[in-house]
């Protein structure tokens, strides 16, 4: 059986590699020639534990090929991005383009699966409509489903196998065929539903998380005002059997949680009031963090800030929608001098330096924005000696407050107001 995967990004590439490692013949398609070139040299353009090794294997075994054009296959998987416009509307052009590209290759009996996160109604409005151009009877001669990806970057290969999977078919036959295909590697339960419900499930999952994180961020700011420790309060509240408050931080990044709730808002702007407010709270949280830096460095002439962490979350090299970028913009507006250190991310920013010592040298304030494990292991005594003033702001509650205070740092944790 042959699978053609459209879009070789964070989801498409690991999925293609996974099917190929199960013995399928897989053809991966991407519109970016540089991506094709680099993959053909067995070099993934994204970072994910285990990816490079398995990619090498499956290419050597002859199970995985790449090009800019789709080939005939028995199943097509669409895993292209669905970005958001400035007006906070979903751009589904990549899904439409991918469908247009596969239409000439689709033959009777084929299965087309959409993994991209999409606004409700996309399967019907885009997929089914495009497939009608094949002249085949959709649902009878060609089968369609939505099986949204729900894997966590950084744990992708583990979660592709162990997570439950939602399969929303346009009819039972489409769903059954999709479930059979994924069963080759999915060990979690495969839950069958209709396509529109599957679209909704995916958006609800990420919205649930966004709203909860917004609540945590709001509680952190209230705690700052009240002079109590939100982290301890959340820890204790979560001992209640029906409470699960999320963790505050510098804001919400990544290409999913910070984006997907807008798709629901777009579908129903009058009703999505809580969803919209939560999105705005999380978007404004980096500005709150910038304000804290401003307060702390207020009386220092020409303050210098060392930012630790560019990635949107710990132990990964992905800075899409990262709150750090908004904190940086805030500092730029203030005209504050800053350096950036992130051992996981290679940015083109000239302020990024390659050692933490370089970043911290002569600084007045360290701000920890990403919970990379490596940041817990730093030699803070040495960093203290390199600094001019000794402020440190922890937005993730991962540093050892006692140790830092003993060294002599002025330690500030977001969500723990001075009592
Ligand atoms: N964050 C907090 N507080 C928390 C949890 C997360 O501030 O309590 C922040 C993180 O620091 C990060 C952002 O939220 O900036 C998102 O991180 P994440 O690890 O929660 O999620 P993603 O975006 O990496 O992946 C999510 C996952 N969805 C859910 O957990 C419901 C993943 O399973 C999805 O596949 C992915 O979105 C996606 O592609 O939709």
TrEMBL record:
<keyword id="KW-0560">Oxidoreductase</keyword>
<dbReference type="Pfam" id="PF03721">
    <property type="entry name" value="UDPG_MGDP_dh_N"/>
</dbReference>
<protein>
    <submittedName>
        <fullName>Nucleotide sugar dehydrogenase</fullName>
    </submittedName>
</protein>
<keyword id="KW-0520">NAD</keyword>
<dbReference type="Pfam" id="PF03720">
    <property type="entry name" value="UDPG_MGDP_dh_C"/>
</dbReference>
<dbReference type="InterPro" id="IPR014026">
    <property type="entry name" value="UDP-Glc/GDP-Man_DH_dimer"/>
</dbReference>
<feature type="domain" description="UDP-glucose/GDP-mannose dehydrogenase C-terminal">
    <location>
        <begin position="306"/>
        <end position="401"/>
    </location>
</feature>
<dbReference type="InterPro" id="IPR036291">
    <property type="entry name" value="NAD(P)-bd_dom_sf"/>
</dbReference>
<comment type="similarity">
    <text>Belongs to the UDP-glucose/GDP-mannose dehydrogenase family.</text>
</comment>
<dbReference type="InterPro" id="IPR036220">
    <property type="entry name" value="UDP-Glc/GDP-Man_DH_C_sf"/>
</dbReference>
<dbReference type="InterPro" id="IPR001732">
    <property type="entry name" value="UDP-Glc/GDP-Man_DH_N"/>
</dbReference>
<dbReference type="Pfam" id="PF00984">
    <property type="entry name" value="UDPG_MGDP_dh"/>
</dbReference>
<dbReference type="InterPro" id="IPR008927">
    <property type="entry name" value="6-PGluconate_DH-like_C_sf"/>
</dbReference>
<dbReference type="InterPro" id="IPR028359">
    <property type="entry name" value="UDP_ManNAc/GlcNAc_DH"/>
</dbReference>
<dbReference type="InterPro" id="IPR014027">
    <property type="entry name" value="UDP-Glc/GDP-Man_DH_C"/>
</dbReference>
<dbReference type="InterPro" id="IPR017476">
    <property type="entry name" value="UDP-Glc/GDP-Man"/>
</dbReference>
